[in-house]
């Protein structure tokens, strides 16, 4: 897989905002020495989110033990988890004035619990630092270990997220170290262990069919998933899986409508929708 990125569809071109709030957000993140998925995964919404004074914290380092072929987060030598990271996330969230805090991570298959205890510590630290704060976690699959899922759920995040990312047929292409059934099991276990709201997400434009997308939506509802996001896949570089199709905005609108008809409490779909983009709206009921 190599070559230049394809020309973007017209609806995928947007102005990159900056300004004083953008600079303030970046300065706070740098002050506390924190990683964000906004930077790590080259998210196209980074300018907007930083400009609104928000970010998605990425704990457990900046490198991943897996090498998913769709993701811009680098993989390789992961090193030890930084001391005091959970507390620094909480302090930075407070400095940013956040009331809704989203925490994700790199995948750390090298850790005995996959980092579950660090997620739990971070949830508790944020809630201790910011009275009334809501916390959403977006976790890896913990290699399917129920005990690790339970560790996170018992910390009482307001939203427990885990992404299936794509349809089963494309796992070998996009995320060969993952397993579709295992990802569904993580969401089912979280629901069974008392998660308040569960959430998952898919990227479209990797070559999936409409029928496959609808099947995944049905599978997610089948394990009690409450919320779903669907967004356009954009290859981080020419070395990643190439984009097979740019999905039109009206097609995304149709998927969101179908998801709501299926019973999802929240469904957000659109070219720039990502798991953590405007994530606070899952609890307010306001659609992006």
Structure overview:
By secondary structure, the chain is an alpha/beta fold. It has a single domain, classed as Aldolase class I (TIM Barrel, Alpha-Beta Barrel), CATH 3.20.20.70. 36% of the residues lie in helices and 13% in strands. The protein has helices at 20-31, 37-40, 46-51, 85-96, 116-129, 146-153, 171-174, 180-192, 210-222, 249-262, 281-284, and strands at 35-36, 56-59, 100-105, 134-138, 159-161, 198-204, 227-232, 266-270. The protein has an 8-stranded mixed beta sheet with strand order 1-2-3-4-5-6-7-8. Helix 4 runs parallel beside helix 5 and helix 9 runs parallel beside helix 10 (249-262). The protein is globular, with a radius of gyration of 18 Å. The two termini are 33 Å apart. The mean pLDDT is 88.
Overall helicity: 25-40%
Percent of residues in beta strands: 5-15%
Low-confidence stretches: none
CATH topology: TIM Barrel
> Class in CATH?
Alpha Beta
Rg estimate, integer Å? 18 Å
Classify the secondary structure makeup into a structural class: alpha/beta
What's the main sheet like?
A: 8 strands, mixed
The structural domain count equals 1
What's the quaternary structure here?
Answer: single chain
What's the CATH superfamily, by name? Aldolase class I
The average pLDDT value, as a whole number, equals 88
Number of helices: 11
Alpha carbon gap, first and last residue = 33 Å
Q: What spatial order of strands do you see in the largest sheet?
A: 1-2-3-4-5-6-7-8
């Amino acid at each position: 897989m190599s070559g230049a990125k394809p020309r973007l569809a017209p609806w995928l071109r947007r102005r990159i905002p900056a300004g004083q709030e953008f600079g303030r957000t970046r300065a706070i993140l740098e002050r506390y020495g924190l990683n964000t998925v906004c930077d790590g995964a080259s998210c196209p919404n980074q300018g907007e989110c930083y400009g609104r004074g928000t970010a998605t914290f990425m704990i457990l380092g900046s490198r991943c033990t897996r090498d998913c072929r769709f993701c811009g987060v680098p993989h390789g030598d992961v090193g030890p988890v930084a001391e005091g990271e959970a507390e620094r996330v909480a302090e930075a969230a407070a400095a940013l004035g956040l009331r809704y805090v989203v925490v994700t991570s790199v995948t750390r298959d090298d850790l005995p619990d996959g980092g579950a205890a660090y997620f739990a510590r971070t949830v508790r630290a944020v809630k201790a630092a910011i009275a009334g704060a809501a916390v959403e976690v977006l976790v890896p699959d913990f290699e399917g270990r129920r005990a690790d899922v339970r560790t996170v759920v018992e910390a009482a995040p307001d939203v427990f997220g885990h992404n299936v990312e794509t349809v089963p047929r494309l796992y070998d292409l996009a995320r060969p170290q993952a397993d579709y059934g295992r990802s569904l099991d993580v969401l089912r276990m979280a629901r069974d262990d008392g998660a308040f709201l569960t959430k998952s997400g898919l990227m479209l434009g990797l070559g999936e069919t409409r029928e496959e997308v609808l099947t995944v939506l049905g599978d997610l509802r089948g394990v009690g998933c409450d919320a779903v996001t669907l967004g356009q896949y954009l290859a981080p570089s020419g070395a990643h899986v190439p984009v097979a199709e740019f999905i039109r905005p009206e097609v995304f609108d149709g998927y969101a409508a179908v998801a709501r008809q299926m019973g999802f409490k929240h469904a957000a779909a659109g070219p720039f929708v990502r798991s953590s983009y405007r994530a606070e709206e899952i609890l307010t009921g306001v659609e992006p």
